[in-house]
């Protein structure tokens, strides 16, 4: 296996469209890195430049010690698994997996050994004589992976390989791909638009927006310490609630005034974010994840609280998803609008038009024991140590 290094890589198409801009990243030997972002963010273009399927306009890509900018795809020692499985329908599973080795004139004994080994890893041992039409979607995806793996390439490239599967099978195959990657210790770059897929699979996740790398980190760090509004609103499902708040001094610490309400910012929280001191008396963006609030009737007594009107409650068995509205100004930036448009075009249109200027939508994950109902006012406790703060001019997180 090998490292993959992007050094100031850019891609500009003939019409002037810049798909990737100044992209710097190193994927370590044996690492599983996921590129994630909304449609058109440049993640697939970046992957295709590694494969040699897109020319590199600027910068340099290395696989191991070799600069591959001018190498043909077949010379790069990479294997790609596509969104559509691209299996040969007239060939058996065995023949599909072994096809690349046969084209390389590998000896039959070695081919049989490799196919047998990879089939065991992928759980295809008993399907080798079947044709693709006799397989389920998940089985066909494993055959496509087997065809890539059997060549023992330096790097695996996967472009939305699970997007054609149903929801249950996607969950199953996420775990399968992660297991196989660990077993093979294979350097892997995986592209998806699904941030849940990215968070559950990657050793690291690279978040892109409009061709620019926003943040690359361990999935938990992305969740806990997003560097800007875009990453904060993109990572997490449902998305982080983002409200405008005025920071005011209170008894040696700070309080966040959100509309007519006030949310205490404990001294230890302010101390952990020394940058907040410069924003006293200013309006900032405050981020609250749905899972960091609770129905106050069953939440901790001393936690800071917010009041909101319940619009709809969704019972999910283990929890209840509360859709609420409160008197507050939502954060309306280009980044937030972009995420909102992906999630709900009507909400995005309202935000852009200003019809939601004084009323903010809010989503909370309540315990299943909550008795809150639509139309009621409800008090919510907030975990203050989980609050996020953002500069509204730059979109950057305040730490």
Biggest sheet overview: 6 strands, mixed
Q: How many beta strands in the DSSP annotation?
A: 20
Level-1 CATH class name of the largest domain: Alpha Beta
Helix/strand/pairing category: alpha+beta
Instruction: Output the radius of gyration.
Output: 25 Å
Count of the separate structural domains: 2
Please state the average pLDDT score: 91
- The CATH architecture of the largest domain is 3-Layer(aba) Sandwich
Binned, the helix content reads: 25-40%
**What's the number of helices?**
11
Task: Give the overall shape.
Answer: elongated
Q: What's the CATH superfamily of the largest domain, by name? A: P-loop containing nucleotide triphosphate hydrolases
CATH topology name of the largest domain, in short, is: Rossmann fold
In angstroms, what separates the terminal alpha carbons? 38 Å
The largest beta-sheet arranges its strands as: 6-7-8-3-9-10
List the helices and strands and how they pair.
Layout: E1 4-12, E2 18-27, E3 32-36, H1 43-51, E4 58-63, E5 66-67, E6 78-81, H2 93-103, H3 108-122, H4 137-149, E7 155-159, H5 167-184, E8 188-192, H6 195-201, E9 204-209, E10 212-217, H7 219-224, H8 229-234, E11 241-250, E12 253-258, E13 261-265, H9 267-272, E14 283-288, E15 293-295, E16 305-315, E17 319-327, H10 334-343, H11 345-353, E18 359-367, E19 377-382, E20 388-390
Plain-language structure description:
This protein is an alpha+beta fold and 399 residues long. The protein folds into two domains: 4-226, Rossmann fold; 234-390, OB fold (Dihydrolipoamide Acetyltransferase, E2P), CATH 2.40.50.140. It contains eleven helices and 20 strands. The strands form four sheets. A six-stranded mixed sheet has the order 6-7-8-3-9-10, sandwiched between helices. Strands 13-12-11-14-20 form a five-stranded antiparallel sheet. A five-stranded antiparallel sheet has the order 15-19-16-17-18, with no helix packed on it. Strand 12 (253-258) and strand 13 (261-265) form a beta hairpin. Helix 10 runs antiparallel to helix 11 (345-353). The protein is elongated. The two termini are 38 Å apart. The mean pLDDT is 91.
């Amino acid at each position: 296996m090998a490292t993959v290094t992007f050094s100031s890589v850019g891609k500009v198409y003939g019409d002037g469209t810049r798909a990737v801009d100044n992209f710097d990243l190193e994927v370590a030997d044996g690492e599983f890195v996921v590129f994630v972002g909304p449609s058109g963010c440049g993640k697939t273009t970046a992957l295709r430049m590694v494969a040699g399927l897109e020319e590199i306009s600027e910068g340099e890509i290395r696989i191991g010690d070799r600069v591959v900018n001018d190498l043909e795809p077949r010379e790069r020692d990479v294997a790609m698994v596509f969104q559509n499985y691209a299996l040969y329908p007239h060939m058996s599973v065995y023949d599909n997996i072994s096809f690349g080795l046969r084209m390389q004139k590998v000896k039959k004994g070695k081919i049989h050994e490799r196919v047998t080994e990879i089939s065991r890893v992928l759980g295809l041992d008993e399907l080798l004589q079947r044709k693709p039409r006799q397989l389920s979607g998940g089985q066909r995806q494993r055959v496509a992976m087997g065809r890539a793996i059997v060549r023992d390439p330096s790097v695996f490239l996967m472009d939305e390989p699970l997007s054609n599967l149903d929801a249950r099978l996607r969950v199953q195959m996420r775990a399968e791909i992660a297991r196989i990657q660990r077993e093979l210790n294979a350097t892997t770059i995986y592209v998806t638009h699904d941030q849940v897929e990215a968070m559950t699979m990657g050793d690291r996740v690279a978040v892109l927006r409009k061709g620019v790398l926003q943040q690359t980190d361990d999935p938990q760090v992305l969740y806990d310490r997003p560097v800007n509004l875009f990453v904060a609103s993109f990572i997490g499902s449902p998305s982080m609630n983002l409200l405008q708040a005025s920071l005011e001094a209170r008894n040696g610490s700070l309080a966040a005034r959100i509309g007519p309400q006030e949310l205490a910012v404990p001294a230890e929280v302010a101390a952990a974010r020394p940058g907040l001191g410069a924003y006293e008396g200013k309006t900032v963006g405050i981020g609250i994840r749905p899972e960091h609030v609770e129905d106050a009737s069953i939440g901790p007594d001393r936690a800071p609280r917010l009041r909101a009107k319940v619009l709809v409650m969704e019972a999910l068995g283990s929890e209840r998803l509360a859709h609420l509205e409160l008197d507050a100004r939502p954060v309306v930036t280009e980044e937030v609008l972009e995420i909102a448009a992906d999630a709900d075009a009507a909400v995005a249109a309202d935000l852009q038009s200003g019809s939601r200027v004084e009323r903010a939508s809010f989503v909370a994950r309540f315990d299943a024991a909550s008795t809150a109902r639509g139309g009621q006012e409800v008090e919510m406790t907030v975990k203050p140590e989980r609050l996020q703060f953002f500069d509204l001019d730059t979109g950057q997180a305040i730490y």
